[in-house]
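Contributing new complexes? Match this layout with S-adenosylmethionine.
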Amino acid sequence: MRVLNNVAVIFSATSTKNAYSLAADIVSSHLKKETPIVLLGFPMTYNKDKLSIAWEENARKVIDSVTKGLDVACITLGDPMTYSTFGYLMRTIKEKDPDIRIKIIPGITSYQAASASVGQVLVEGDESLTIVSGAPGAKKLKDIIDHSDNIIMVKVYHHYKEIIRTLDELNLTSKAILVSHSGLDGEEIVHDLKKNTDKIPPYLSILLIRKKD
Ligand SMILES: C[S@@+](CC[C@H](N)C(=O)[O-])C[C@H]1O[C@@H](n2cnc3c(N)ncnc32)[C@H](O)[C@@H]1O
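Output block (do not edit by hand):
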């Protein structure tokens, strides 16, 4: 908040579909009234050409403010270096103008928040922890299950049913906990994943899998 209240403009990524930023919503009541929050629209697509046009346009908006002599900040959910649109924005800004000084302020990731909500250790002693994305489906879970003691799966929303089926095949259903809206209104912690398998959780949902009892 100290940084956010000392910049001229705040940028926040949003989907071009709905022009809403939860990150902006969270910080807005703590900001000085006069600080503008500019939404940077990113299309929710895997089309590389469309994405690179959006990164270029958005990076240009940030660079334009900085070259006017303004200090600006970009906000994101959780940590900016973890599965965040900020990574793409940062790389594009650096390519276009390597002299712009960028300072990263680390955030609390969704899986740190979720493990704290559940009160379950993420990783300890000699154990390993692997973080995977469920966006392409359950395949990555199968790939790493024998090589990691603890697994975090983000982006479980699209292929939720397939992921739950795979957990069952791997005898991991009782070891997995689903956390939705961690740290937010409506936070939900589900231990018994075999119940309600038809209910697709919201986008902000994460699976914590700990093999050890
Ligand atoms: C684009 S990534 C953002 C990750 C974020 N930068 C972080 O530090 O965790 C979005 C995914 O992170 C997870 N996520 C983010 N915020 C969450 C929350 N409050 N509760 C549960 N999962 C969350 C979900 O798996 C969601 O699909």
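Reviewers usually confirm one structural detail per submission. For this one: The chain has two domains: 4-96, 110-210.
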